[in-house]
Design brief:
Layout lengths: L12 E5 L5 H9 L4 E7 L4 H17 L4 E3 L4 H9 L2 E7 L10 H8 L2 E5 L22 H13 L2 E3 L5 H10 L5 E5 L13 H10 L2 E4 L14 H15 L4 E3 L9 H9 L24 H10 L4 H19 L5
Parallel strand pairs: 1-2, 2-4, 3-4, 4-5, 5-6, 7-8, 8-9
Amino acid sequence: MTRADGTAAQPRIDGLQYARWSEKVFRQMRAGRVDAVHATICYHESFRETVETIVAWNRLFASHADLVFHGVAAADVDHARAQGRTAIFFGAQNPSCLDGDIGLIEVLHRLGLRFLQLTYNNQSLLGTGHAEAEDAGLTRMGREAVAEMNRLGVAIDMSHAGERTTLEAIAASTRPVTVSHANPASWHDVSRNVSDRVLDALRDSGGMLGFSLYPLHLKGGGACTLEAFCTMVARTAERIGVARLGIGSDLCQDQPDSVVEWMRNGRWTKRGAPAAFPDQPEWFRDNRDFDKLAAGLTAAGFDGEEVGMILGGNWRRFFADSFGPGR
């Protein structure tokens, strides 16, 4: 079975979004045939504040049950496809929600958390962020957290970490690790993108890279062309293999600029600078544009099966490897 665009009939999954969630966004997910989305529920929030976000999500699930539901297992991707809905998988971009208590990983897992970044830009209790001058690697608590996440089935996400911390997390984990939203630094050399060493480690450990469509991660920013992006995807596939690749768009649709200020400044500084969201590339403004990605990847030389893998099939496998019972 194939879609009208010629791609193999595999699920469509976005490995990271933080939209201003609404019926409009949910309907666009369905128009784009997006079966699952990893949605951020924490940047700098405490445990209690993160729980409040989950409460708000529960209201959205109840109000829009025909469009979205809470995903907790890989099989929920299949249920979403069968039902014509989108499964929402919770993730935290910072371990602030742990309040320094490793026991809260299990509590948050029971509440549906399925992704946890070990750090967001800065040094955390678990590891070093990419924005720090020195990368000290995983902390003692970080190593304990990796083991606990492996036991419970919480995916380890290294998207905002330093290189040493990322490599040590990959080495310490008994499950595949992801960088859910970044691009190769060899293509666009900013500190949020990842080195060839990290790419090779993801390949060798069975991990996943989610290509980011956030303009600051793109060569040329919002002016980056679809052709340039998909050519970069093809070059990355040559290095680490198609099976290691997905989309983690980092789409922050409809969010006010105050949200990006919160992302950057949080509570850790009194001198935070004003910030604004950059313009998205014209070929990816919302979830309906997954068809454009499919066309661009096809033009870059991927066959229908490979396009299906990149647009979701690989994430489906990663979910199955990551969310099951501990080992």
